[in-house]
Amino acid sequence: MKLYEIIIKPQSAFGTPLKGDTLFGQFCWQYIYDAGENDSGFKTLIDTYAQRPMVVFSSAVPLIQKPEKTYVFKRPDLPSGMLAQRKDLSRADHIRQKKQLRSKKWMLVGEDLTIDLSRTDAYVNDLELMERLNREHDSDELVRTFLKSHNTINRNTGTTGKNMFAPYQENAFCYLPDTELAILTLVDDDHISIDRVKRYIENIGLVGFGKDASTGNGRFTVESADELPEISYESSQAVYSLAPSVTEDEAFKHKFFKLFVRFGKHGGALATSGNPFKKPIMMEDEGAVYVFNEMADKKRLPYIGQAVSHVSKSQDKTVVQGYSPYLPVKNLVTS
């Protein structure tokens, strides 16, 4: 599989985070709208996804283009003591550094996409990130959460009212204007082209991604889709996940992650069916760090995790992306 970088630019607020498993679900619906559910290519995609995925999406991450290309990842889900490596620090300075790191939710990673945990200067908070973007006068945070009001009009009275017609609010979020997001995507070129993947992502941006797309949420444009240089994973002692995943314990010596429960819902025609909801799935959120067993195969696949099936009563062939692309991690101290 080849690694591509799909760069998108948000054009509206979002009601659903741009996570890899949800991107894959909407990608599948765009495939169905384009080619049909009985298309041989789509049937192969679904039937072989558990053994050989054709495409694996990362969650979208902010991208800084100037002065040098830098990815803004979520800080690894490691204990603060493992991020604040002591070296020659006194005990008091070490405790102070741990406290400072707790407030820094972002991790800056260079164009080589290698994470070096010995670089504590890579971690930044919102204000430091705004300075890096030269946007400190525009806002004090890159992503802003707000409440979005909704209502339903009673056609008999022409107004809102009680019960199902009562106004309500839901959470939404938006990025700072002109923010670019990168989706790191693994594509099996033998079965599907990056041009086709890009076209389906463009379609998602046109119709809207996720919750409340019908009211204007989830709009974005695709700026580019370029192949990235091959990343060497073989010498890495640990890896950093880029999307929610479902991994097997046997493959790893250590796992550091935050639990993420996906309460999934069907899209397309199934969204209005008698039972549009999928079974909840316990996933390991992006930003997890995994240490491979010593016996792990050195020629690793460029993704971890597994496909998740048997999650729907409405469509028994439904499959969820439990895979995640990952990046190599250097200088992880586990003891």
Brief synopsis:
By secondary structure, this protein is of the alpha+beta class. Helix content is 18%, strand content 28%.
Task: Please tell me about this protein's structure.
The structure is a single chain. The protein is an alpha+beta fold and 335 residues long. It has one domain. Helices cover 18% and strands 28% of the residues. The protein has six helices and 18 strands. Strand 3 and strand 4 form a beta hairpin. Helix 1 packs across helix 6. The longest helix is centred in the first third of the chain and has 16 residues. The protein starts with a strand and ends in a 5-residue tail after the last strand.
Primary descriptors:
335 residues; alpha+beta; eight-stranded antiparallel beta sheet; six-stranded mixed beta sheet; 6 helices; globular
Q: Are there runs of 5+ residues with pLDDT below 50, and where?
A: none
Helix tally equals: 6
**Would you list the SSEs in sequence order as H and E?**
EHHEEEHHEEEHEEEHEEEEEEEE
Helix fraction?
Answer: 10-25%
Helix/sheet category: alpha+beta
N-end to C-end Cα span = 34 Å
User: How many extended strands?
Assistant: 18
* Major β-sheet annotation: 8 strands, antiparallel
| Count of the domains | 1
- What value does the average pLDDT take? 88
List the helices and strands and how they pair.
Elements: E1 2-10, H1 20-35, H2 40-47, E2 55-57, E3 61-64, E4 70-74, H3 80-83, H4 91-102, E5 106-110, E6 115-116, E7 123-124, H5 126-132, E8 143-150, E9 168-175, E10 180-187, H6 194-207, E11 220-227, E12 238-241, E13 252-256, E14 259-262, E15 281-284, E16 289-292, E17 303-305, E18 323-330
Parallel strand pairs: 6-18
Antiparallel strand pairs: 1-10, 1-11, 2-10, 3-4, 3-10, 4-5, 5-7, 8-9, 12-16, 12-18, 13-16, 14-15, 17-18
